[in-house]
Amino acid sequence: MTTAARPTFDPARGKGSQAPTRIYSSRDLASHTKLKFRQTGQTTQDELNRVDLKAQLKKAEQDHYEKVNKVVKLGAGLSNSFKDDNDDDQKQESAAATETSTETPLERKRRLLQEAERLDKDDSDDSDASKDSDESDSDSDSDDEDDTAELLRELEKIKRERAEEKERQERIQREEEEKAREAQVAAGNPLLDMPEASAASSGPKDFSVKRRWDEDVIFKNQARGMDDKPKKRFINDTLRSDFHRKFMNKYVQ
């Protein structure tokens, strides 16, 4: 009869007759036996009661409106400055107009004549300077054109010579490649390299297969079969396996 399902002796006796133990596991001990409360600076209830939330809201609104009013005032100041500049320009124009209106017709005529003479003098100076510069420029331009034409002719001559030289070299290279290709084709086919096909050949060609130097030696293939070991095979029969046959041949016969 099996005893696998029967309890051992100590559990069967129970704990009434055993001495009480004072050894406990750390997992059996009580943990978190005290509640944690908020400390000072952690928004306790007293701190929240002392804070005036309504005053903070009003202060934030006042700061916002002050910022908006400052921006509006800054824009108004800029527009006023532009307006002041326009007023100054208008004042200067009005002052010039009053000065022109106060001068007499004789003075006005004299002023206009002086301005006309000054403008004519400036135009004559400019025309003289432009004529001198045009003459010098025309001389220099003619010389430059002659030099440029000469340089262009030399450049065309050099380009033409280089093109001719390049074409000549390419023609020579093509001829050499064609000759090499023909020679390769003639040498590649032994039937075309016969004396009848080529007059420059010295004699008939030998088409026999060349023999190796070790074909007629006495000791040839002496190591053949030395490394031919039988491959291991698996036979699912102990009486016909290779090991059994080798064992029987070695120890029984």
From TrEMBL:
**Which keywords fit this entry according to its UniProt record?**
mRNA processing, mRNA splicing
For whether the record's keyword set contains Secreted, the answer is: no
Biased amino acid composition, Low complexity: 93-104
**Biological process, per Gene Ontology:** mRNA cis splicing, via spliceosome
Q: Where is the composition biased (Basic and acidic residues)?
A: 112-121, 150-182
- What molecular functions are annotated in GO for this chain? RNA binding
* Bias kind Acidic residues: ranges: 134-149
Which residue ranges are recorded for the region named Disordered? Answer: 1-45, 77-207
Q: What Gene Ontology cellular component terms go with this record? A: catalytic step 2 spliceosome
Kinase as a keyword of this entry, yes or no, is no
Per the record, the similarity remark reads: Belongs to the CWC15 family.
Q: What does this protein do?
A: Involved in pre-mRNA splicing.
Under what name is this protein listed? Answer: Cwf15/Cwc15 cell cycle control protein
